[in-house]
């Protein structure tokens, strides 16, 4: 039984080591990205740090566990178990926090994919799309040329289906809000009505036809960005929950493969 536990522990630790190396390598950009662990939202870099920390912690713990297993070092094995327990507690806390943060938001897509910042949690509004953070996200969206993709969809797809394929970021950042009354002329130009705007909403005044301006500073753009970040974070939560269950199994196997003092002393004396 003990030998079988050690074999399972070795195999699962090798798998954990491989997973942690993929996470660290992908997030740090030292390897070519294989899988997107932090979602597809453009410029969602704030999600990278907790995942990078998780990957580094698991990488260190896996190395400690393998050394403890092959060298039969009892104290090192105990250190491994405590480190894994702390990682599991931290990951569980992050999952709970993530679920609380992403619990608010639009449940169903409205016509034209129009969203409001008031639909989202205060934490997301204060820490993701506040003035300080939005400046960097704004620049990133411009460099990513998000609206170029939107323009291509708008020019080739019929109006009946175009809103089904555009992303929330494209919908919020690349066109004026419908209540403003702007008339569509082409993919790069929306004409203001001769009678004036039908609404003096802040977003209506903010809109510009310039390619690097459009509605990137609009509240609708921030809301659309939060929709995509929230959806990606929910996917990340699903991955984290599965990974948490996996780590609990690894911890349990690690506990059962813990060498007794007599075996450890016998191995160390050889």
TrEMBL record:
Cellular compartment(s): Membrane
GO biological process, one term: auxin-activated signaling pathway
Keyword Cell inner membrane: no
Protein topology in the membrane: Multi-pass membrane protein
InterPro entries according to UniProt: TET_plant, Tetraspanin/Peripherin
Keywords for the protein's UniProt record, in alphabetical order: Membrane, Transmembrane, Transmembrane helix
Superkingdom, natural source: Eukaryota
Pfam families linked to this entry: Tetraspanin
Membrane-crossing segments per the record: 7-27, 47-70, 79-101, 234-258
Main location as per UniProt: membrane
GO cellular component term of the entry, any: plasmodesma
Family per similarity comment: Belongs to the tetraspanin (TM4SF) family.
Name of the protein in question: Senescence-associated protein
């Amino acid at each position: 039984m003990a030998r079988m536990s050690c074999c399972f522990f070795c195999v699962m630790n090798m798998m954990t080591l491989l997973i942690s190396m993929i996470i660290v390598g992908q997030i740090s950009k030292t390897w070519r990205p294989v899988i997107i662990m932090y979602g597809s939202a453009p410029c969602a870099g704030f999600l990278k740090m907790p995942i990078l920390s998780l990957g580094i912690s698991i990488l260190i713990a896996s190395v400690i566990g393998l050394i403890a297993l092959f060298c039969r070092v009892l104290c090192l094995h105990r250190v491994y178990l405590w480190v894994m327990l702390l990682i599991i507690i931290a990951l569980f806390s992050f999952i709970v926090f993530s679920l609380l943060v992403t619990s608010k938001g639009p449940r169903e897509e409205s016509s034209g994919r129009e969203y409001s910042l008031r639909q989202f949690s205060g934490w997301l509004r204060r820490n993701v799309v506040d003035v300080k953070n939005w400046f960097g996200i704004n620049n990133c969206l411009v460099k990513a040329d998000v609206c170029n993709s939107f323009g291509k969809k708008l020019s080739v797809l019929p109006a009946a289906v175009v809103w089904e394929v555009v992303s929330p970021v494209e919908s919020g950042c690349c066109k004026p809000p419908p209540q403003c009354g702007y008339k569509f002329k082409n993919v790069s130009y929306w004409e203001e009505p001769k009678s004036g705007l039908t609404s003096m909403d802040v977003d209506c005044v903010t809109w510009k036809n310039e390619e690097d301006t459009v509605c990137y500073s609009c509240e609708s753009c921030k809301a659309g960005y939060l929709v995509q970040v929230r959806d990606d974070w929910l996917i990340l939560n699903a991955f984290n929950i599965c990974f948490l269950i996996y780590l609990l199994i690894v911890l349990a196997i690690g506990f059962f493969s813990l060498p007794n003092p007599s075996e450890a002393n016998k191995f160390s004396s050889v």
